[in-house]
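Escalation from tier 1.

The customer reports that the assembly of two entities below gives different structure tokens on two consecutive runs. Tier 1 could not reproduce it. I'm attaching the input and our single run for tier 2 to review.
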Amino acid sequence: MTDCDRRTFLTQAGGAVAALSFLPEFATAAPQPTDGPLPVALVGVGRQGRSILGELQKMQESAAVVAICDSDDRRLRSGARRAAGAEAFADHRAMLEKRKDIQAIFIATPTHAHRQVAVDALQAGRHVYCEAPIAATIEDCRAIASAARSAPGLCQPGLQGRSDPIYKLAWSFFRSDAIRDLISMRGQYHRKTTWRTPTSDPARDKLLNWRLDPEVSIGLAGEFGTHQFDVFHWYTDRYPTTIVGAGDIRLHDDGRTVADTVDCNLTFTGGAHLQYNATLANSFEGRHEVLCGSNGAIKLAWTHGWMFKEADAPTQGWEVYANRQQFHNDEGITLIADATKLAAQGKLKEGVGLPNDPLYYSITDFFNSIVKNEPVVCSIEEGMRATAVGILANRAIVTGEAVTIDDSILKGS
Amino acid sequence: MHAMGTRFEIAAEGNDERQLRAACEAALAEIEEWDARLTLFKPSSFLSYINTHAAAQPVQLDDDLFELIAESIAVHRASQGAFDITLAPVMRAWGFHKSHDSREPTIHSRGCISADAPDHTPPCTPADLPFGMSDLELDEAQRTIRFKREGMALDLGGIAKGHALDLAASILRESGVRSALLHGGTSTVIGINAISTRAGADHWPVQLGFDQPGITVKLRDAALSVSAPHGRTIHMDGAELGHIIDPRSGAPARGTRLAAVVAPSARLADAWSTALLVLGRRPPDIPDSFTTLIARDTDEGVDRRIEGAEPRLFLLTARRAIIEEEEPYDRL
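Tier 1 run:
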């Protein structure tokens, strides 16, 4: 960590600690289980919030959205149209105070606003699903993690890879040495978009376009990289020690200063490197992660996954019957979740992707942890680590300086 | 952008390219979202959830979807049953829901249908299939939907495209876009205002391409939808049958070559153009302000009938358009 980073984080931490002193007196108690659907609330009804509402709508037996909250009146009104019967609040504290029946809170506010909502909700004894990255500064990450550790409720960061059935399947192959020694890693997020939320009201522009505001934005590496860095952490049990990076505006030269294209190199413990590239100027090959080993490679693309074997790698029995796809000179073995079950139903060839959005599985896991006491699929510690790496990768890109990551950052101390 | 089995495009006019791009992206994202919600062909859609659960218990809807279904019921009634959103089992039985390479009608001649269920249900008549708007129960107070019969399934294909375009247009307007033309599959179009740089152009001229000389529709804050039996078709007993089902018979509608409706919203234009293709005439309960065109094949040729009135909208034959020295945009 550079001195500059430490100073910035400490300064930002000061403001955040001051904010904590205004916390209302919430009763801290474990959420009481209820019969019927779990009463839940959503804070932040932007596009991601609406995606969460969309998935919850298909889980009506498990959960009922009883409240929604957004400080932007227009978003709140349009969000209310997607959550029939939900009470609308402009302030999350008023919501926590009034709706004691809420068991779980989904947080989908702008990243830099997560901390206040998460800490308040956890201290109010509610279960929390916090979108990732969990915060925009390391101090905020620590505050959320600290609140989660002492809270009676659960806290699951929204790192969807860990709930994705294809990623879990590929993880089991990776952990059983299917590609043998790890050689290299790469990840990319390619999408052609302005990343700008349109508004005819200049007063709302700063509020809505926080991703393009260098004061609070953690850039492409923070917003998208965090999700992907976590996949590598989870698979390898390794974390980066140094990050170098660069960013530029390659297409959207519209007055913004937040880079629309970034590249970085993360050196992991044990010497392996991760090359990461994200751009808003091109959509080729979308979003994926690749782990290369001495016996093969695994490519993960959220709703799809493949394994590529080296010619000298041993063949497993199941591979003989597996579906395959040709990628130029390489043949990928399609990784299909529940392949045996699908084969028994004669449905194996109908589709090779996930039937649901990865978000669906992440929310399902959250409910299973609450209702069935299953372990939280992604701990707040891992959420904090992935977010910290995203923040520091952005720092390396913005400053152009190598960032060293010491243990204290990843341990949250 | 590809969604709902077709291509969506937006042309927007304005001086601030930065805002225009962002607005168009947000509008297209809205269409994508509705595609994901309303597709019949993905188990992850909310429509699939409704179709799987609504016979067993009421399913909670959001306001947007509730209003869409309520409006569908209103058009069903006003069109004397010619518009129906419960035809999924019938469409499936006729083979319109299968992929192109395996599209085989499971209907037998003489009007008997065999439902193409995996268990090879024996042949049945359309009346035996679980469809019908009267078996749809919409609870306004609770905002829920319920099917009164097992096996029912909604197919919103006759209105979803227009609905998505309406919401996309509303995002464009909220974002400050004052002039735009957006369409889905060139069959449903919305014209938002028009501040074209072309002198005197205060509307978006859209040419209907089914006939020569063509008909030009001038849109200004209005929507146009065109329905025709061609596109998705099946062949049976030597005849080509179009994909629009007459809900009153359960069989593909015949006799009308094309129906077009200009209406204040795209979803109403969409639903009514489907209904008019089935009816082959303008029913008394369609709002007076909607302009309609129905083209029917007769022994003497094509009979084109333009009816209705809407001061802001004009339906002109090409000849009259030429007199006005109007040239249609070639954007569609």
